[in-house]
Amino acid sequence: MAAVRRCGELNGWPLHTAGQDGALLAGALEANFPSVDIPKECGAPAPKITGGFDEWIKANPHMESQAYNEVKKCSCGKPCAVTMALCNACGASLQEVEVSKSPNLFVAFIYGVDKASFPLRISMRLETKDMMVFDDPLAITRAHVLAVPTNVYCPDIRSLFVDPARAVALLKKMEAAAWTGLQQGPLASEVWRRKALSPEGNAMHIDALRDHVVMAFNLPPSQYQLHLQYMLPPLLPSHLGVFRKGAHFMKMRHFPLAYVLQALEKLALLGESWPDAPQLTAQELVDKITPLGIDYGKAHDDDMMRLQKSNDLLANYDPADFTHAVKGDEVTDKHTRTKVEGVTAKDLDGKDKLVLQGYGRPYEGGKPGGVYYMYPRDPEPLPTLSTSSACCDAIFCGAAA
C-alpha cells in the first residue's frame, strides 16, 4: 500500500492515513490498539435521577431554559450545530435538514440524569465539584476530551464576554483540568503512547505534548453548555476524510482557545464587558473583537498550521494494523485497491470508532461503559457567569475534589 508511516504528503497532509490516491485506512485490528480504562475512583455507579430526561423536565419545568439545544440532526444520529452545512461525524449534507430541539446532554450529566434516548453514562477522566473532564463520545483523535464546568451555566463562548475577568479565570481552569485528564489518562500509559504516537512524540517529555493539543470551542455548539474541545493529534483516519470535506475546524465555527482568551484578557484589562454578546452571531462577535487588535482569520490559520505540523509530527498509523482502505464510499483492498463487496464504509467506520476511541473503557459486553457524575447538583438552574460567585475562584490544580 502506498500509505506508509511517516512518509510523504497529500494536499498538505502527511500520508500517515492515506494512500497517494486519497484512500483512507479502515478496518482497525482491535488486538493491535491498546486502550486506557477510566479511573476507578471517578464517577458514581448509579444516577441521581431515574425515569429519563423527559420525566425529569416534567417534574422540574423551571429547568427547561437550560435543558435544550437547537440542532440539525443528521441521518447518522449526530446532533449538529444549526450553522453546519455538513455533518462533522459522517460528512453528509445538512442543507435540507430542519432545525429541531434536543436534550442538553451536558446539563443532564451535571444533574445526574440516567438517560435520554440512550443511557447518559460518562467516560469520566476527572471530576471535581465544579468541573468534569470526559472522553468525547464523538472523538476525532485517540486522545480527545471535553472539559465542562458544572457550577455555572454558560451556553457558549459569547456569554463569556459578559464578564471577561471571571471568564479568563474559568477558561484557564478548564484548560488545566483538561490537560490533567489527558496526562493522568492515556498519556500515563507507556503502552498506549508507543502505539498512538510517533517515535518523535514518544521521545518528548509528556509536558511538551501539551503544546500540540488543539484547544478550541465551537460556535454555535451542538450542546449548549460551555465545553472546551481538547484534542491531541493525530486525527483518526476517517476524520481526516471528514476534514478534507471541510466539515472540521471551519472558519466562523472553530474558535481557538488562545484567540478567545486574548480577547477576554484585553477586555478585562480595559475594564470593559459586552452585555449584548450572547445575542451576537459568530461574525458579529469577530467584528466586535477585531478593533481590539486581535485578528480571527490569523488565529484560525495559525491554529490550522499548528494542527498540520502536529499531525505530521505525531501520526503513527501503520497500514499493517488495518484490513481495508476507503475512498469516498467505496471499500477497497488496501493492497490492490480493488473494490471489496459485502462491507460498507459506514460499517467499517462504526467498528473503527469502537477500536480506536478511548470512550467508555473498559467495554461491557463489547459496548462502551461509563459512570455518572459523583457530585450531581440539586434541580435548580445553574447561576450564570455574571451571577456566580464561585465558578472560577481558583485555577484547577488537581483531581481531588
Provide structural commentary.
- The chain has 401 residues and is α+β, with helices and mostly antiparallel strands.
- The protein is 27% helix and 17% strand.
- The chain is built from 10 helices and 14 strands.
- A hairpin with a 5-residue loop joins strand 8 and strand 9.
- Helix 3 packs antiparallel against helix 7 (257-270).
- The longest helix is centred in the middle third of the chain and has 21 residues, at 164-184.
- Residues 1-15 and 397-401 have low confidence and may be disordered.
**How big a fraction of the residues is strand?**
15-25%
Q: What class would the helix/strand composition place it in?
A: alpha+beta
User: DSSP helix count?
Assistant: 10
Mean pLDDT: 91
Adjacency order of strands in the biggest sheet: 7-8-9-11-10-12
Let me know the number of strands. Answer: 14
Order of helices and strands: EEEHEEEHEEEHHHEEHEHHHEEH
In angstroms, what is the radius of gyration? 21 Å
Q: Which blocks of ≥5 consecutive residues have pLDDT under 50?
A: 1-15, 397-401
Oligomeric category: single chain
- As a percent range, the share of helical residues equals 25-40%
- Report on the biggest sheet: 6 strands, antiparallel
Task: Report how far the terminal alpha carbons are from each other.
Answer: 50 Å
Q: Name the shape in a single word.
A: globular
